[in-house]
Amino acid sequence: MTLTSFGPANRIQRSAETHPLTWRLRDDGEAVWLDEYQAKNGYAAARKAFADMDQDAIVQTVKDAGLKGRGGAGFPTGVKWGLMPKDESINIRYLLCNADEMEPNTWKDRMLMEQLPHLLIEGMLISARALKTYRGYIFLRGEYTTAAKHLNRAVEEAKAAGLLGKNILGSGFDFELFVHTGAGRYICGEETALINSLEGRRANPRSKPPFPAAVGVWGKPTCVNNVETLCNVPAIIADGVDWYKSLAREGSEDMGTKLMGFSGKVKNPGLWELPFGVTGRELFEDYAGGMRDGFKLKAWQPGGAGTGFLLPEHLDAQMYAGGIAKVGTRMGTGLAMAVDDSVNMVSLLRNMEQFFARESCGFCTPCRDGLPWSVKLLMAIEQGKGQPGDIETLLGLVGFLGPGKTFCAHAPGAVEPLGSAIKYFRPEFEAGIAPVSAAVPPLARPIVVGA
Length: 451
What we know:
The chain is α/β, with parallel strands linked by helices. The protein has helices at 34-39, 44-52, 55-65, 77-82, 108-115, 117-131, 145-160, 191-198, 227-239, 241-246, 280-287, 321-325, 345-359, 365-382, 390-400, 410-430, and strands at residues 3-4, 94-99, 135-140, 176-181, 222-226, 257-263, 270-275, 297-301, 335-340. It has 3 domains: 18-245, NADH-ubiquinone oxidoreductase 51kDa subunit (Rossmann fold); 247-340, Roll (Ubiquitin-like (UB roll)); 345-430, NADH-ubiquinone oxidoreductase 51kDa subunit, iron-sulphur binding domain (de novo design (two linked rop proteins)). Helix 2 (44-52) packs across helix 9, helix 6 (117-131) packs across helix 9 and helix 13 runs antiparallel to helix 16 (410-430). It starts with a strand and ends in a 21-residue tail after the last helix. Its EC number is 7.1.1.-.
């Protein structure tokens, strides 16, 4: 996996001042264990938080820094933390790390967990202090076996060093942390489905309200944050709000840096820590190196399979939530995919919708029935057997399964790329519509009910 720095061709080295997430990474790609992590100023932020800051100060600092969720939704982290009850009589609270990274074309959290497991642990430790949670879980995608191995080792190292467990850093604060591997369901990326799965239940999303901050794991107040989100916390606490905000490019409404990437038939597919506000063109040309020889960029997705397709002319959009929204889709996870000119968009969408249909929890009718219906129509169009009206039916499904029409955000994310593909590449869909057969005679008379 490639990881470069701010400058093209690796001319600028990663540093703590510019790369809060990745400056500690080893050049050989091996994990950074406790001794090396502490030698690189690891757990200094946790010591500062425990010694000099109370709960409200930590929450306010994260809020003032403008940290937003890095899993795709982009909800302000400090605001989310502020929803946790302040009633001191509630002594059982939970902190969950959403590490169920199953968004197609997304692998950023995997890199952090495999190579910097203590960064995540430190982020969770500070967050637990802020939220007064006594127990935490890392809900990990089951296929991430190396990440599980490294996280479990790092947890044991932290326990032995007095950084987890009882009376952490002599503060009287207790925090236990467990790694929980899931069975492999995309829907577990939805926080309440994750909670159900952790409890041993079917991974269905829950009705909200109540929100997890009020009623979460086993009925107790719970905060759920993404891996990359939690990994930002130590640097904010260590170096302050103004510094963190200064990392983003001018014009960006999102603060700090973001792990971004590009896959597909590009010359240098990889993952980079970049400031919010870089353009898609910088990411595509300066870091990913543009398309391989013999291929031309046809379309691209800015942040995973659940984001809409964009055209090459949209590459000048800034990579932050509002910047990508201006060209009609979402930032998502920030890991882009290039679609080359050899790809048929109907086949690509059929493949995507098959995945989303399979991963639906089946709880609500629009998602359970609508996604397989879209797959059936796309398969027919792909085989040149589509019927007149099929494209309109697909567009109708895009509307029926849109935001606010289903129980959770799974279906809206699933149909967003479908709607954008039809918008920009409709002729490819029309090419799969079979001509009306002349052998079918017209009806001799209209069908009348009861006739």
